[in-house]
Amino acid sequence: MDLSRFEQRSEHEWLSPAHGRMRVPVVIYASRELMQAMDAKVLEQATNVASLPGIVQASYAMPDAHWGYGFPIGGVAAFDPGDGVVSAGGVGFDISCGVRTLLTGLRRDDILRVQSRLADILFARIPAGVGSTGELHLSAKEMDAMLTGGARWAVERGYGSEADLARIEERGSMHGADPKAVSKQARRRQRDEMGTLGSGNHYLEVQHVAEVFDAAVAAAYGIQAGDVVVSIHCGSRGLGHQIGTEFLREMLIAAPAAGIELPDRELACAPLASPLGQRYLGAMRAAINCALANRQILTHLTRDAFRKVLPDARLPLLYDVSHNTCKEESHVVEGRKRRLFVHRKGATRAFGPGHPELPAEFREAGQPVLIGGSMGTGSYILSGLATGMERAFSSACHGAGRAMSRHEATRRWQGRAIVDELAGRGILIRSPSLRGVAEEAPLAYKDVSAVVDAADAAGLARKVARLEPLVCVKG
């Protein structure tokens, strides 16, 4: 990235002023080192986003930002409901992909005694990989109920408990979902995929808390050094991908009639107030419910697997938060509270202390912000900050961010060698695809610690704990 194109407003805040068709500036939060290594396409795409109608304040990019479809991955943009737009590319194809972290009450030594057996049982119980299907097959009526009810639908069918719902974004059920806006093809793709991880960078990981940075917040979250947690990273599977594909095509065709001049075809969007915009919001919200239900079912399967090896394990939910969404939220802009539609694509919501949407037990500490790493590196738990509420509409990074393409990764590494190398470090990998393991090689990603340090230093979120993997079931 050419840093001469930016004004450095602080050590970790870089501004590219509005020019040409831009309505607002671009702001990137990152260290100098991350900026220098960042793909120049990030600025190009964030600049294109800054030209969209109704955008408010700035087009933002997080420390893990990299090139994506239309919007950069790690991009954040908010739009006014009156004259703004909603973009399917600004949400992404894996709608409501997110991370859910479970507490276990176990210690690292408890897992090491049964590590191999637990890895095998989790792999046997958790469907993973391209085209993976589960044991649940939804009728048309149940599909509608799931798309409307989300995790609450799953809990009502025995997949978890009411206590889980308080620890999930939107309390487990996204309002405004419209199952009628979800096509037959999207439904067909999802009919047998509930309770599955899928492929790519999705995973289920047993982790131990290797380091605590903020003991008070960690205590509020119920964790301490040496504890074991389980993190689940996945989204809305085939249904979300199909919704993204269909609406991007429709938005592209409809843009000229809506008076929208697109700087990039991949930024296809629709006015928020238009029938098309409202229909997409209804379908996207249904996909959010699909993702929440999917992670709830996977939680149930994980709990069952743990009980087979460690009968006393209970696995209560710490938190569940998505990083590919468009949410209607209240934010203060230039001293005035406004309702805005906030796109976060590869960016995690990070509400600070006192936010009314947080569970009461997290009200003082701020929202848990769950950051996934690669299977051979660490993951992180952060907390939302009051300063973060003033920056990038309460958003933070979502992971390490890719440093190279999957094709390049498979050219450099062999899956079997990675599995063996990680086993030598005490990390057991289970995957149906060695090619998939190679695609997700740890060194194919940026340094997650550098990304998290930048988010912390920029005031987006505070570091709470670092997690290291013990077992990884990889899609």
3D structure, described in words:
The mean pLDDT is 95. It is globular, with a radius of gyration of 21 Å. Strand 15 and strand 16 form a beta hairpin. Helix content is 33%, strand content 26%. The chain is built from 16 helices and 19 strands. It is of the alpha+beta class. The protein has one domain: tRNA-splicing ligase RtcB. Strands 7, 8, 9, 11, 15, 16, 18 and 19 form an 8-stranded mixed beta sheet that branches. The protein has a 7-stranded mixed beta sheet with strand order 1-2-3-4-5-13-12, sandwiched between helices. A two-stranded antiparallel sheet has the order 6-10.
Q: Features of this protein?
A:
eight-stranded mixed sheet; tRNA-splicing ligase RtcB; seven-stranded mixed sheet; 16 helices; alpha+beta; globular; 475 residues; 19 strands
Helical/strand content category: alpha+beta
CATH class label: Alpha Beta
Number of strands: 19
Oligomeric status: single chain
Second-tier CATH architecture: Alpha-Beta Complex
Total of DSSP H or I helical runs spanning 4+ residues: 16
Rg estimate, integer Å: 21 Å
Instruction: Please tell me the total number of domains.
Output: 1
Q: Brief overview, please?
A:
This protein has 475 residues and is an alpha+beta fold.
Question: What is the element layout, followed by pairings?
Answer:
Blueprint: E1 7-10, E2 13-16, E3 26-29, H1 32-37, H2 41-49, E4 55-66, E5 73-79, E6 85-87, E7 98-107, H3 108-112, H4 115-125, H5 140-149, H6 151-156, H7 162-165, H8 184-190, E8 203-212, H9 215-221, E9 227-234, H10 237-254, E10 269-271, H11 275-309, E11 317-322, E12 324-333, E13 336-345, E14 348-349, E15 368-371, E16 379-384, H12 386-390, E17 395-396, H13 406-412, H14 415-424, E18 428-430, H15 434-439, H16 448-457, E19 461-474
Helix pairs in contact: 4-11, 5-11, 8-10, 10-11
